[in-house]
Amino acid sequence: MFATYLIGLREGLEATLVVSILVAFLVKSQRRDRLPQVWAGVGLAVALSVLFGWLIEYTSTSLLARSEERELFEAITSVAAVVFVTWMIFWMRRAARTIAGELRGKLTEALAVGSLAVAGMAFLAVIREGLETALIFYSAAQGAAGDSGPLLALIGGILTAVVLGVLLYASALRINLSKFFTWTGALLILVAAGILKYGVHDFQEAGVLPGLNDLAFDITGTLDPSTWYAALLAGMFNVTPAPTVLETIAWIGYAVPVLALFLRPARRKPAPTASTGTERVADTDTDTDTDTGTEAEAATAPQRA
């Protein structure tokens, strides 16, 4: 359940920060009359995200009659979720310092067009997070059919993110968002490795990949699946005591290089040289801001403007 809580927290905070930036910009610009359009766009994005999540679940449980079809569908959604997770964490790492400025620029353009453009801009800013959350949650919660725990954990993560976003907006809380997204990003990479491993297993059960009975190792005697810590590892990162060879290759082959790329120090970009051409002032291209770690928090505190 921790994995789905983490998904809700991470995606929820990204969406909350986006909404906070839009609201703060309208408040600062004395355009509170456009706030209803922003909330309408956000509400529509949330509703469609929930519908998308329901549609995925309905397709798996009701539209696909054969078990092989369900396994193949779950495998494909698992791979898609891993792609989205990977893209999301690297995009946030790269765009964290510029996202507030980009959103303000797009909102300024939307204000010049009209109310529908404002609602549409808010919708597009949030819908990506919502669709990603639905897809990743479905993939991470596979194998928990009939268990409401993952769904409750996801909702808990989203509610936590909303509370944090409100506190950031009200200047009642200051956190280093750069470190937050770095740590949660690293954990999500391990979660994604587990989702990919689950997807490989589904491909094997569907008959697309071979080796369903070729185990890489079997440590069931040491890591008893009935223990709480075995259940925790399986629930968080899909670490199981008897994986197949292809599952193990997929888990390690994804987790190790992606973690290495994600955690490597940010490259330094030389600033424009002075007139002498001899001195360079180095700056970083990503996550080295001071208190908040991104430009986003500064944009969500109108009283400090």
Description:
The protein is mostly helical and 305 residues long. The chain contains ten helices and two strands. Helix 3 packs across helix 5 and helix 4 crosses helix 5. The radius of gyration is 22 Å and the shape is elongated.
Brief characterization of the structure:
This protein has 305 residues and is mainly alpha-helical. It contains 10 helices and 2 strands, in the order αααααααααββα.
Beta-strand fraction estimate: under 5%
Q: How many helical stretches? A: 10
Helix-strand sequence = HHHHHHHHHEEH
Widest sheet: strand order?
A: 1-2
User: Uncertain regions: pLDDT < 50 for 5+ in a row?
Assistant: 274-305
Give the biggest beta sheet.
2 strands, antiparallel
Globular, elongated, flat, extended or rod-shaped: what is the shape? elongated
Descriptive labels:
10 helices, mainly alpha, disordered C terminus, 69% helix, 305 residues, two-stranded antiparallel sheet, 2% strand
List the helices and strands and how they pair.
Blueprint: H1 2-28, H2 35-63, H3 67-95, H4 99-113, H5 115-140, H6 149-169, H7 177-205, H8 228-237, H9 245-263, E1 268-270, E2 282-284, H10 296-299
Antiparallel strand pairs: 1-2
